[in-house]
Design a protein that fits this description.
The chain has about 625 residues and is of the alpha/beta class. It is about 35% helix and about 20% strand. The protein has an eight-stranded mixed beta sheet with strand order 10-11-17-16-15-18-19-20, sandwiched between helices. A three-stranded mixed beta sheet has the order 2-6-5, with helices on one face. A three-stranded antiparallel beta sheet has the order 12-14-13. The longest helix has 22 residues. The termini are far apart. About 5% of the residues have low confidence. This is Nitric oxide reductase NorD protein. InterPro entries: NorD/CobT, VWF_A, vWFA_dom_sf. Pfam families: VWA. It comes from Pseudomonas fluvialis.
């Protein structure tokens, strides 16, 4: 019996592979994966005018009402196919392309889609807009026309024959073929009950499933279902909204008196389990479509509690009233004034403490390395007298004399002791992600605390004015900023106690924290002002501060800081930081620490490099 079952399973698997391979319209031997071209395509998209905040990722298969042949109906394939689409926040390309029998053509198709997406705008009519974008792209770059013609001619050979289709489908197919050959020549398209076979050279309407609905922007969210790393591994799912079924009745198909049962009272502890349900994640990964419903519950009046926030008697100590700050909305291209409420805090329960004994040797080594920078000695060039010859000034003088334009200038260098004229504010990300473990002994928050302690020990020895702050957020109404040391305070055991009392917070509304830090540094009289940001991830929050919205607001806050005379610099331990930090801080405005345990030692070294530029 067991042998028969195994034989049936083997025969079934062989048949499934055979019929699926025969029914597939792709060419597996010429398949090209998006992962191998993702970075070059993103660079091409942005170089041709695409928005820098748009993320390029893989698209999920989309349900299409296609006319399938007999083999495809038997195999049950081609019900869902991945197509390219883009909007103001996303550029989604198929995870792999095998529509051509040639690898080079599939790679060229990826590049064409990236170029077309950079040219595209808001889509109102699928066929008309794609024709217009294609014609404008070919007119602007005539050298692309031969490549486009090769893609079109190779694709037309693989499309269904209009003579074998019904009347409406055949007319639509002819119109689409004409639109591909001569973009812009077709202005009206026949109607058909079935969708045409996918056009890989065109963009499809966007699926804005990742954006919150307009009616939900002001409401509370239930949070994330999976963490950030799992979200990157899961493919984007197709979803549909359904009405919640409130009916409680149903048809009873058996009589309860016929059900024999035996029960016994047993005391059980039915406390809820807060651990993650791995089976739910696997089920969601297997589903092709997710159904979402909005549960309409009548909100109770009177008292409203937010269980995410601790009670006042155990929460951090607030300092003064809240501070109203603006926030950048890239969709409106304007600042929303007084949109964010920021509250300054002192860590509760902090007591004066000495530097931990385990950090004393490292602190002593850093003090010894930075003592010689207390009074920095610089070379003054083009001096009339000095201890060294200024070779650059002498070379300029010699060249000018050869051309008959001799100008009197000093040819010596003199070394003088100069006073360091700079101030630094360190802003540490204290979001809940810092509660994650790096290994069996250390969490991210532990590494951040050690970094703040060693940074304070180093700069107190150096004598540069500095301030230490931490931040987290819980929606725009509750941006929390911990004051560890202000510019007017001394770095002492009280400051060390505040640092060691830090705990992981909530989310990362980075733009508001940078704007408040900019205001705090506006009172510094030093010529050079350095704003350091230590973080472990992207800007995010429970409300609309996700994805491109948070990235754009942070970028605008960084630009505001630079206009105010600050030098913002980001230090991250996020291994994917290179995907979004260049857009927010610039190519030279960030650094990635690949081994987070090295952050306490690397942070003072980075400060020395930044202040010696």
């Amino acid at each position: 019996m067991a042998f028969t079952v195994e034989l049936e399973e083997w025969v079934g698997s062989v048949w499934h592979r055979f019929i699926t391979r025969r029914a597939s319209p792709d060419f597996p031997e010429a398949r090209v994966d998006l992962a191998s071209l993702q970075r070059p395509l993103a660079l091409l998209f942005r170089a041709m005018g695409g928005a820098s905040g748009v993320a390029l990722e893989a698209a999920s298969p989309r349900q299409l009402l296609l006319r399938r042949n007999l083999l495809q109906q038997v195999a049950g394939t081609c019900k869902q196919l991945p197509v390219a689409w883009c909007d103001s926040s996303n550029l989604r390309l198929p995870p792999s392309l095998a529509v051509y029998p040639d690898v080079g053509l599939n790679q060229e198709l990826y590049r064409w889609l990236a170029l077309l997406a950079a040219q595209a705008g808001d889509m109102r009519h699928w066929a008309l807009d794609n024709q217009r974008w294609t014609a404008e792209l070919l007119q602007r770059y005539p050298a692309m026309r031969p490549r486009y013609q090769r893609l079109v001619e190779a694709h037309l050979q693989l499309r269904p024959d209009p003579s074998q289709l019904a009347g409406g489908e055949a007319a639509l197919e002819r119109a689409l073929c004409q639109a591909l050959r001569e973009p812009g020549s077709v202005h009206q398209f026949p109607r058909s009950e079935r969708a045409p076979w996918p056009l890989p050279l065109w963009l499809y309407p966007a699926q804005n499933l990742g954006e919150p609905q307009a009616c939900q922007l002001g409401e509370e969210s239930d949070g994330q279902l999976v963490n950030a790393s799992e979200q990157q591994q899961l493919a984007r799912k197709q979803a549909k909204r359904v009405e919640e079924s409130t009916s409680k009745g149903g048809l009873l198909i058996f009589r309860l008196e016929n059900l024999f049962s035996w029960s016994e009272h047993i005391e059980l502890d039915r406390c809820s389990d807060d651990s993650e349900d791995l089976d739910a994640a696997r089920v969601a990964e297997d589903l092709d479509e997710l159904a979402l419903s909005k549960q309409r519950l009548r909100k109770g009046g009177g008292l409203k509690l937010d269980l995410d926030l601790p009670p006042a008697d155990v929460d951090d100590i607030p300092l003064g009233d809240g501070i109203r700050l603006p926030e950048w909305d890239y969709r409106k291209q304007s600042l929303n004034k007084d949109f964010v409420n920021l509250q300054m805090y002192l860590p509760r329960g902090s007591e004066a403490q000495h530097l931990p004994a385990r950090l004393a040797p490292l602190a002593k080594r850093l003090r010894r390395q930075f003592e010689h920078l207390r009074n920095d000695r610089q070379w003054l060039r083009q001096q009339t007298q000095g201890s060294e010859l200024d070779l650059q000034a002498w070379l300029d003088f010699h060249v000018e004399r050869q051309h008959g334009h001799c100008v009197e200038r000093g040819l010596f260098m003199q070394q003088r002791t100069t006073r360091r004229d700079l101030a630094c504010l360190l802003l540490a990300d204290l979001s809940m992600s810092t509660d994650a473990h790096l290994d069996d002994e250390h969490r991210v928050i532990d590494v951040v605390i050690d970094s703040l302690l060693l940074f304070g020990e180093t700069l107190s020895t150096l004598g540069d004015p500095f301030a230490l702050y931490g931040f987290s957020s819980l929606r725009r109404q509750q941006v929390r900023m911990q004051e560890l040391k202000s510019f007017s305070q001394r770095y002492d055991d009280q400051t060390r106690g505040r640092i060691q009392a830090l705990k992981p917070g909530y989310y990362t509304r980075m733009g508001a924290a940078i704007r408040q830090a900019t205001q705090l540094m506006s009172g510094c009289r030093q010529k050079r002002k350095l704003l350091l940001l230590v973080t472990d991830g992207k800007p995010n929050d429970l409300d609309l501060y996700e994805g491109r919205y948070g990235v754009e607001d942070t970028r605008e806050a960084v630009l505001e800081a630079r206009r105010a005379g600050l030098l913002p610099f980001c230090i991250t331990i996020d291994q994917q930081g290179g995907d979004y930090l260049p857009y927010m801080f610039g190519a030279n405005g960030y650094t990635l620490i690949r081994q987070p345990q090295q952050l306490p030692m690397r942070l003072p070294q980075l400060y020395r490099q930044l202040t010696q530029r």
